[in-house]
Amino acid sequence: MTIIKAAAVQISPVLYSREATVDKVVRKIRELGLKGVQFATFPETVMPYYPYFSAVQTPIQILGGTEFLKLLDQAVTVPSAATDAIGDAAREAGMVVSIGVNERDGGTLYNTQLLFDADGTLIQRRRKISPTHFEKMVWGQGDGSGLRAVDSAVGRIGQLACYEHNNPLARYAMMADGEQIHSSMYPGSAFGEPFAQRMEINIRQHAMESGAFVVNATAWLDADQQAQIMKDTGCDIGPISGGSFTAIVAPDGMLIGEPLRSGEGEVIADLDFSLIDKRKMLMDAAGHYNRPELLSLVIDRTPAANVHERVRQPGALAS
User: Fold this and answer.
1) Measured between alpha carbons, how far is 76 from 239 in angstroms, rounded to an integer?
2) Is 235 one of the annotated active-site residues of the chain?
């Protein structure tokens, strides 16, 4: 019987500083390692920080201002000293680490999820496929190459970011690839309580449908950080408060322990993999509960144009 100790981490970035944020994350990884944690999820683009400015400024303000350029300057390249530091910390702690970064590739930023194995190796770098609404002013689009679960020291892990959990095909790709642990990350300290409620629906539904554990992390802005963003962007506090829901969900959709809705900290729980089999015995969404020809369309990663052509063909999806 496999039991993994996991942590969903709610942490504040160090605004406008990649180096300081990396140092803070490294300290947290080491701290969790001493607690026996084997897998940890950190928030969306927590390195160096989520682009809150894009949610509160107009496109003209973004183009004419300095907030994007500050983020571009402090963003993470892969590989770099920043990713080496996270990998080294994961290796020292013997921990698998999933973390969100603003990745710089040339002159473009991406919302990227990095997955480090327990030996410090970077085993997945995936980019959010479609930035949501105002995020399009900041991030480029990813592609489908990252819609895969990967094997790690603690099991098979899939990753999705924020509103990708509203994309049924992206989620089904994770299910079809046999994820056992789903790493989910959102910005946190944004968009109020309704955002947190929708997030809870997303992650609990995905756990129940996938039959996997969901480890979900959101960030946290303290009062001084909120005041700084308000000063720098001219926004009020509403769009940069609330909306945190760091939690771990069992394969039947039930919460394990109490979610963390404010402040820094972590939710730690034992993930008993026998619960995956128990859930899938009832309903396996990528197995006996779905039509195999639909499943094949997802897992063969056929380019989108070809998939559309196959769907148009008479009888392509006939039973």
Assistant:
1) 25
2) no
Helix, strand, coil tally for the chain in percent (to 5): 40, 25, 35
Count Cα neighbours of 193 within 13 Å in the Cβ-side half-sphere: 0
Q: Which one is catalytic: 67, 135, 162, 280?
A: 162
Report which of 173, 140, 49 is spatially closest to residue 100, judged by C-alpha positions: 49
Cis, peptide link before residue 59, omega less than 30° from 0 = no
The model's pLDDT over 107-116, given as tens digits with 9 standing for 90+, comes to: 999 999 999 9
Give the 3-state secondary structure of residue 283.
coil
Task: Compute the distance between CA of residue 192 and CA of residue 241 in angstroms, rounded to an integer.
Answer: 6
Does 128 qualify as catalytic in the annotation? Answer: yes
- Based on the residue annotation, tell me whether 44 is a catalytic residue of this protein: yes
Distances (CA, A) of 98 to 101, 136, 238, 270, 309: 10, 23, 29, 17, 36
User: What distance, in Å, lies between the first and last C-alpha atoms of the chain?
Assistant: 38
Single-letter residue type at 58: T
DSSP assignment string, 26-44: HHHHHHHHHTT--EEE--T
pTM (2 decimals)? 0.90
Alpha-carbon distance of 153 to 56, in angstroms, equals: 41
The token pair at 293 is 């020809």
162-186: pLDDT as tens digits: 999 999 999 999 999 999 999 999 9
